[in-house]
Amino acid sequence: MAGMTSSARPLLNRRLAEFGTTIFAEMSALAVRTGAINLGQGFPDTDGPEEVREAAVRAVRDGRGNQYPPGPGVPELRTAIAAHQRHWYGLSYDPDTEVLVTAGATEAIAAALLALVEPGDEVIALEPYYDSYAACVALAGGTRVPVTLRPHEGKFRLDLDELRDAVTDRTRLLLINTPHNPTGTVLTRAELAAVAELAVARDLLVVTDEVYEHLVYDDAEHIPLASFPGMRERTVTISSSGKTFSLTGWKVGWITAAPALLTAVRSAKQYLTYVSAGPFQYAIAEALALPDRYFTAFRDDLRAKRDLLATGLAEAGFGVHRPTGTYFVTTDIRPLGHTDGVAFCRALPERAGVVAVPNAVFYDHREAGAPFVRFAFCKRTAVLADAVRRLKALG
Fold it and tell me: How far apart are alpha carbons 251 and 105 in whole angstroms?
């Protein structure tokens, strides 16, 4: 029949054959269908600062960014990103040669891996990991090598010996996420120093996903890996405006890296979106210049919501791993008599009117993540309180 293709070869590229619809799409659709409270996908249910939204409106009205912006990003935003890195971390980057604006952190990760990884290269990532990591490694033709974060005394910890043992002659790159999604772990200064020593000793490139950099709690501290000795020239640092300013739909992310690394990544990025989010780039430039009290207040608000949800989950019978970063709580469902997080999450909307995400989908070693379930607390306090009330009825 005209238009039909041969059945001898699957339509989907074999590198993507193992990846289906993302768990976020599945769970969000389930929330809509059942009317459940969606604590699965990590997006806020309120918009970001009014002054930042108004800055985007001004940009549109003034004709700034309505046409293609410059490939690396508008100069105002690149300057603001460099100023942000200097202000918060003492890291100096040239806005013209060491800063690249991307369509969110997801594109930044894709561009970095497509640029830096050859077929056959090994990429070590901390497991569980954000689902796009695995897909991007596959698209680049690389081989992902998971190093599993394991629960210990209420937190998920990195085994540095396991990380060292994972490095082989084929290892090209370490993909590090801190603050870590989904576990909420924030790597300590000592852990980061050990990662840096390993990267230097084995001459490895490092890509760091730091999108939750301003969401750290208690005694935790976010320290960019690029700030450690020998790391600035081998580290691609990625962040994004979505999580910090509650504007996830704008998809404004960025990369900071030494000129040679940035040039390589930009070579791949230009063939993905080329440019995006023109007016929003001007608005995020203003957002990054907000006074420190904005970032502090935002963190404190999320910490209070973390405490509300974590306490409620514990009272509902979940085992709770209280996070020191991000806006997710990982729970253990075994105290509730369950061991299969995927089945648990698919049934939860009907049982309790709440949607969560099973951590197993973020693991290569599915059995290691089977009993863990992630809840997002980036929601209004009243919504979280309602979710807690519903979950307590599970017992």
Answer: 8
- Which residues have C-beta within 8 Å of that of residue 24, sequence separation ≥ 6? 40, 41, 131, 357
Helix, strand, coil percentages (3-state) for the chain, rounded to 5, are 45, 15, 40
Question: Tokens 């013209």 sit at which residue?
Answer: 96
The phi, psi pair for 8, rounded to 5°, reads -70, -25
Which one-letter amino acid corresponds to residue 67?
A: Q
Residues 6+ positions from 276 with CB-CB distance below 8 Å = 102, 103, 107, 251, 252
Q: Cβ distance 329 to 181 under 8 Å?
A: no
Burial class (CB in 10 A: 0-12, 13-18, 19+), 46: exposed
Q: What is the pLDDT of residue 1?
A: 47
Give the CA count within 13 Å in the CB-facing half-sphere of 89.
21
- 295-332 tens-digit pLDDT: 999 999 999 999 999 999 999 999 999 999 999 999 99
pLDDT at residue 5 above 70? Answer: no
Length of the chain, in residues: 395
Alpha helices in the chain (DSSP H): 23-34, 50-61, 75-89, 104-116, 131-139, 160-166, 189-201, 242-245, 259-269, 278-288, 292-315, 341-352, 366-369, 381-392
Which residues, including other chains, have CB under 8 Å from residue 218's CB and lie 6 or more apart?
A: 303, 324
Task: Take residue 197 and report the two structure tokens written for it.
Answer: 């020593």
Please give the span between the terminal C-alpha atoms of the chain, in angstroms, as a whole number: 57
